[in-house]
Amino acid sequence: MADVQKQFMKYHSNIRVDYEMSETLREKRDIVVEKIKNYMRDNDKPVPTQLLQGSYIMKTGVKPIADIEYDIDVGLRFDIHEDDYSASEVRGWVLDAIGDHTKRVDSKGPCIRVCYEAGYHLDIVCYAVWEDSACISQYRLAHKDNGWRAADPPDRKSVV
């Protein structure tokens, strides 16, 4: 039987996101999240916690091809009920906090994208999270066009 392990390992090392790019993305993520938290504190808004999600936390990141950029997904968990604030209001706070962070910050459907000239970006997703009467956590994603949408992030680990 053929031993394909060497070929697989070579292929895997060619497609996986390398540590240096991951480190750069983590640093950018941490700077942006801290900037958002400081803005919220300074403006008496609910301060979110970071919600780990996406290919980075799932360890499934691959090198992009063609015009696709490296990215990292950042969830922001706001401990609020969906009736407390509108989705556009919460997204507005985040945009106010980071709108001038880089030359280009885009408000996309489910996220706010912070673009970097070096060819990568951060996708920031805002969630309202509360417990219902059965003590079950309810997640709502703040969508640009559709308001609060039911969500179930695949990984619900929060980082302070």
General description of the model:
This protein has 160 residues and is of the alpha+beta class. It is 32% helix and 30% strand. The protein has four helices and eight strands; from the N terminus they run ααβαβαββββββ. It has helices at 5-15, 19-42, 54-58, 87-98, and strands at 49-52, 70-78, 104-107, 112-116, 120-131, 137-143, 147-151, 158-159. Strands 1, 2, 3, 4, 5, 6, 7 and 8 form an eight-stranded mixed sheet that branches. Helix 2 (19-42) packs across helix 4 (87-98). It is globular. It starts with a helix and ends with a strand. The mean pLDDT is 83.
Please outline the helices and strands.
Blueprint lengths: L4 H11 L3 H24 L6 E4 L1 H5 L11 E9 L8 H12 L5 E4 L4 E5 L3 E12 L5 E7 L3 E5 L6 E2 L1
Parallel strand pairs: 2-5
Antiparallel strand pairs: 1-2, 1-8, 3-4, 4-5, 5-6, 6-7
